[in-house]
Specification:
36% of the residues lie in helices and 21% in strands. Strands 14, 18, 19, 20, 21, 23, 24, 25, 26 and 27 form a ten-stranded mixed beta sheet that branches. Strands 10, 11, 12, 13, 15, 16, 17 and 22 form an eight-stranded mixed beta sheet that branches. A six-stranded mixed beta sheet has the order 2-4-3-7-8-9, with helices on both faces. The protein has three domains: 5-22 and 529-707, 2-Layer Sandwich (Endonuclease, Chain A); 50-335, polyphosphate kinase like (2-Layer Sandwich); 346-517, Endonuclease Chain A (Endonuclease, Chain A, 2-Layer Sandwich), CATH 3.30.870.10. The chain is α/β, with parallel strands linked by helices.
């Protein structure tokens, strides 16, 4: 292993200063916004079913919320404390904020234009009507106003703002109404009313329900109206005797990134609980308003929320697009993606007894490719381990498991059967902290050994270790994966998982859990690449080896598939491989700070991004290695946080048939795709991949679904 590709490569074309030049790097934040643009393109794509387009629109809204809560909030803090350090691309925090505002405002405006001018008219034609309050018939208004009186009115709490009433606290992601009232003496008063998040944002008008007839006709129509408009129309009931002059919606986004002072936190669980509670009180980083809100009302918000005027984002159309997601649950399967049956690998289809799954793994490693392959074998593996009398212990990392988790239930059952169970629950999994705190409490109550992670590190690895007594010996069975132990997201996230009982990987897993649960300074692993221990040096050494093969044989080849490529040292290592002539294909779903197409530096690198029905989430690192091909897969993206500040695991796929599957039926299919695929250009923008004349349309996700009906990896 080597610590520096730059120092180890004897025939570099560019100097170190050339590689470090800001012109070689794309800004991380702007690259993330380009990803949101690709998601928005899916909402605009008329080849997608209509309700799937609604889903993508909602995802854009929620992704931008998180982007402001975390990334923009962090940049604003840097500006406040006078940080002058710049990222590799050379943009200062202030420059980044200015560029972000311009791009984000454009994206938010385009998203609402898509909803207003495209999706809502098509929903209307399909029998799903999102109405403005003034569009309601008299009969509908009677029904909606009755709903207001019975359900909404008792929940509302109008808050005045005057010398006797301080400006009220406005919680994160809350939708509010700024109300201007005229009292009897003609004075204008200001009040704030929170739109209750406990009620549906889209109020169903109970006139009809149902689904499409077989003949294609619509037997029933669905009608909805925006909750804030219902409240605004009935505002006089909240301020009797007053004249309502104006009502304007606004939505607040706050800093939600938690900084845990672990050195001062005696109890990390308690500290995280406090941190989650405090999240709703973070500094305001964005306020979206309707573009007709008068300047004087905006000034009230700017002054009392302590905003920079640039934190106000005026928009035409509804605020909080993430709230349209419930439309996707309407029972109209003609407007959604065609469902498919997830596959079970042949060797796992006829498991008859608790020991059979272990026998199958002893025969050879088993690969699962979700969501094309079912997540059920993972749950079965843990359930059988819980009940098998020969299983002595189960150890597992949990990052995001979701609600009603069958994985956690299996671990609880294992305790009932008297197994030793140790679980690392990552409390710092952003926006899943509350769920993980609940699971940690429950597991502890049942006698499970619960660990909350390492000081200063977030445990992001996905690994389960089962220790089983077999005769006079002990055998270790592993499941390792790129995705979380979450049975719900396994149906919509594309991920790779593998079962193995390889002795050396089992020994590595034991060392890893000792590192996580106790005191271990182990620096070497047999086969696993573990961050922050040996993953960086291991990946650099593998890239350097490919450079050497290129110099010697001219056949250097790398294919990396990941969520994000941000780490500057890994980018420079790839630049050097490109300079040496190594052919490099990168499949990067989200952020990519590497700039392809730089003459003499990255002209051997192609970067594509696939955004489609499933969230591309697997990390696969392919090395041609002079024909002795190697593939690593696992939890780590090539980002500083993953390599330096998280516990991550990359594991080798060793059996040739599994390497062939990942090479030929995953990576090469993505590289041949001409649908749902964009190519990164040197300026940081993306263009659709164009197919040559005569090429058949190829959507990699659709291809993999169809492939499951013909053959399956075992």
């Amino acid at each position: 292993m080597t610590d520096s590709i730059v120092e180890s490569s004897p025939s570099t074309v560019a100097t170190q200063s050339d590689l470090d030049s800001p012109k070689n790097f794309i800004n991380r934040e702007l690259s993330m916004l380009e990803f949101q643009r690709r998601v928005l393109e899916e909402a605009r794509d008329e080849t997608n079913p209509l309700l799937e387009r609604v889903k993508f629109l909602s995802i854009v809204g929620s992704n931008l919320d998180e982007f402001f809560m975390v990334r923009v909030a962090g940049l604003k803090k840097q500006v406040e404390v006078g940080v002058h350090e710049t990222p590799p691309d050379g943009m200062s925090p202030s420059e980044q904020l200015a560029a972000i505002r311009k791009t984000a405002l454009q994206l938010m405006s385009q998203a609402r234009e898509c909803l207003r001018d495209d999706i809502l008219p098509q929903l209307n034609k399909a029998g799903i009507h999102i109405l403005e309050y003034q569009q309601l018939s008299e009969r509908q208004k009677v029904a909606v106003d009755g709903y207001f009186d019975e359900v909404v009115f008792p929940v509302l709490t109008p808050l005045a703002f005057d010398p006797g009433h301080p400006f009220p606290h406005i919680s994160n992601l809350s939708l509010n109404l700024a109300v201007v009232i005229e009292e009897e003496r003609g004075h204008e008063l200001f009040a704030r009313l929170k739109v209750p998040a406990t009620l549906p944002r889209l109020v169903p008008i109970k006139r009809s329900s149902g689904s499409l007839r077989k003949d294609g006709t619509i037997p029933y129509h669905h009608y909805f109206v925006w909750l804030e408009q219902v409240i605004a129309a009935n505002m006089s009931k909240l301020f009797p005797g007053m004249k309502i002059l104006e009502v304007h919606p606004f939505r607040v986004t706050r800093d939600a990134d938690t900084v845990i002072q672990e050195l001062e936190a005696g109890d990390l669980l308690e500290t995280m609980e406090q941190s989650v509670r405090q999240r709703r009180f973070g500094d305001v980083v964005r306020v979206t308003v309707n573009d007709i809100m008068p300047a004087r009302i905006q000034e009230i918000l700017i002054e009392n929320l302590e905003l920079d005027p640039k934190d106000i984002y005026p928009l035409e159309g509804p605020l909080g697009l993430s709230n349209v997601m419930p439309l996707h649950s309407i029972d109209r399967y003609d407007l959604k993606d065609t469902p498919f049956k997830q596959a079970i690998p042949v060797v796992l289809r006829n498991i008859a007894s608790d020991s059979d799954i272990f026998a199958a793994i002893r025969n050879h490693d088993i690969l699962l490719h979700h969501p094309y392959d079912s997540f059920t074998p993972v749950v079965d593996f843990l359930n059988q381990a819980a009940r098998d009398p020969d299983v002595l212990a189960i150890k597992q990392t949990l990052y995001r498991v979701g609600r009603n988790s069958p994985v956690v239930n299996a671990l609880l059952e294992a305790r009932e059967y008297g197994k030793q169970v140790a679980v690392l629950v990552e409390l710092k999994a952003r926006f899943d902290e509350e769920s993980n705190i609940r699971w940690a409490r429950m597991l502890e109550q049942e006698g499970v050994h619960v660990i909350y992670g390492l000081l200063g590190l977030k445990t992001h690895s996905k690994i389960a270790l089962v220790v089983r007594k077999e005769g006079e010996h002990i055998r270790r069975y592993l499941h390792m994966a790129t995705g979380n132990y979450n049975a719900v997201t396994a149906q919509i996230y594309e991920d790779i998982g593998m079962f193995t009982c390889d002795d050396e990987m089992g020994a590595d897993a034991t060392d890893l859990f000792n590192y996580l649960t106790g005191y271990s300074a182990k620096k070497d692993y047999h086969k696993l690449l573990v961050a922050p221990v040996n993953l960086r040096s291991g990946m650099e050494a593998l890239i350097l080896r490919e450079i050497k093969h290129q110099h010697k044989n001219g056949n250097g080849r790398l294919i990396f598939k990941m969520n994000s490529l941000v780490d500057p040292d890994m980018i420079k290592a790839l630049y050097q491989a490109s300079e040496a002539g190594v052919k490099i294909d990168l499949i990067v779903r989200g952020m990519c700070c590497l700039r392809p197409g730089i003459k003499g530096i990255s002209d051997n690198i192609r970067v594509i991004s696939v955004v489609g029905r499933f969230l591309e989430h697997s990390r696969i690192f392919y090395f041609y290695n002079d024909g002795a091909e190697q593939i690593y897969t696992g939890s780590a993206d090539l980002m500083p946080r993953n390599i330096n500040r998280r516990v991550e695991v990359l594991f080798p796929v060793q059996e040739q048939r599994l390497i062939r599957y990942l090479r030929d039926e995953v990576l090469e299919i993505y590289l041949k795709a001409n649908l749902k695929t964009r190519k990164l250009l040197p300026d940081g923008s993306y263009n659709w991949v164009k197919s040559d004349q005569g090429d058949k349309p190829l959507n990699p996700q659709t291809w993999l679904i169809e492939r499951r009906t013909k053959s399956k990896p075992e």
